[in-house]
Amino acid sequence: MSATDRTSQRVAELIDRLSRLTRELQYVDGLNPAQWEALRFISRANRYSRTPSALAEFLGTTKGTTSQTLIALENRGFIRRVRDTNDRRVINLELTDQATDLLCGDPVLKIENMVDQLGPETGATLVRGLSRLLRDMQREVGAKEFGMCELCCQFQCSETDARGQGVQHCGLTGERMSESDLNRICVNFKSTEAKVS
Ligand code: SF4
Known about the structure:
Elements: H1 3-25, H2 33-44, H3 52-59, H4 63-75, E1 79-83, E2 91-95, H5 97-103, H6 109-117, H7 120-141, E3 155-160, E4 166-170, H8 179-182, H9 193-196
Helix pairs in contact: 2-4, 3-4
Bound molecules: iron/sulfur cluster (SF4).
Iron/sulfur cluster binds at residues 46, 149, 152, 154-155, 170, 172, 186, 188-189.
């Protein structure tokens, strides 16, 4: 086995081991990993993505399984379903204050603290490598990528407003995107090879 093969094997083993430990961490406060992931998703998703179907795509599960997750969270008072004001057929998911408080003690924050200890250079290298791996895996299995406007090929920033500041739009919907929208993950995200490599 070559040195490159050994490195690849080791990385695959480490990712597998880390993902198991990360799952184990999330059996706390009476929730399971899928329920924690759903709460995290709703807190970070943009206005097009806080729906049960987008959540099912993000979790990589069926709509039925996602529905069970949502019912459990609703019964605990962590989420509510709200009809969209522009399209009454669409149901949006919202976190309650109780869920926002709960997320302050998200068990995954332990991993964030450990990554902080590795230093900024190692952190940036990990982000680059793991992002590329995630994208390749998603393409391999045909899963949606999810991501933020900055790296989306449909993002447009071509006009300036009265104060001479750039005006950002989603090229897919034509809607203006605020600064806070830019930091949220989107179900319609499409990366460009040039921007993510
Ligand atoms: S620009 Fe891309 S990521 Fe941003 S809202 Fe539009 S589709 Fe979503």
